[in-house]
Amino acid sequence: MKILLGYDGSPAAMDALKLAVKHGKAFNGTVYVVHSLTGGAENNEEKIAVAENQLAFAKDVIQKTGVACETHLLIRGLPTGEDIVRFTEEREIDTIIIGVRRRTQVGKLLFGSTAAYVILNAPCPVITTR
Predict the structure, then answer these.
(1) Beta strands in 7-103 (DSSP E)
(2) What is the pLDDT of residues 83-93, one digit of tens each?
(3) Ranges assigned E (strand) in the chain
(4) For residues 2 and 88, what is the distance between their CA atoms, to the nearest angstrom?
(5) Which of 60, 81, 79, 59 is nearest to 70 (CA)?
(6) Which structural domain, as residue segments, surrounds residue 15?
């Protein structure tokens, strides 16, 4: 089983990481840890370094449990939700696990919702944690 974990180092992503490990063990799967930087080529080195450190942390946690893992830093200039869905299609992922943050209705309206985009557009089941 191929499991995609959307990971950004947030508390919600940490909860999703724990769940991805459980699913990886239960289904003898591979966890694909993905971090999407929305700015594309104009991202600065500091943001890239932070993202790479977050991915390395997640990979270390997962591999210590014996679950197979790959990390992917996506810098394609796409919105995060679209990046995750496109990666899912490219790699034929079976399940997506993402953490969600609580936002007010106004916050969702102004800033959109990555989780909502993924849930509505993913070609596979999406599991959310909060």
Answers:
(1) 30-36, 68-74, 95-99
(2) 999 999 999 99
(3) 2-6, 30-36, 68-74, 95-99, 126-129
(4) 9
(5) 59
(6) 2-129
Count of domains forming the chain: 1
End-to-end Cα spacing for the chain: 23
Both tokens assigned to 20: 């991805």
Give the CATH number for residue 40. 3.40.50.620
Task: Supply the DSSP symbol for 46.
Answer: H
pLDDT tens, 95-120?
Answer: 999 998 766 665 454 445 888 899 99
| Phi/psi at 129 (5° precision) | -125, 155
In contact, 125 and 95? CB cutoff 8 Å: yes
pTM, two decimal places: 0.89
pLDDT at 42: 59
Which two tokens mark 5? Answer: 């974990």
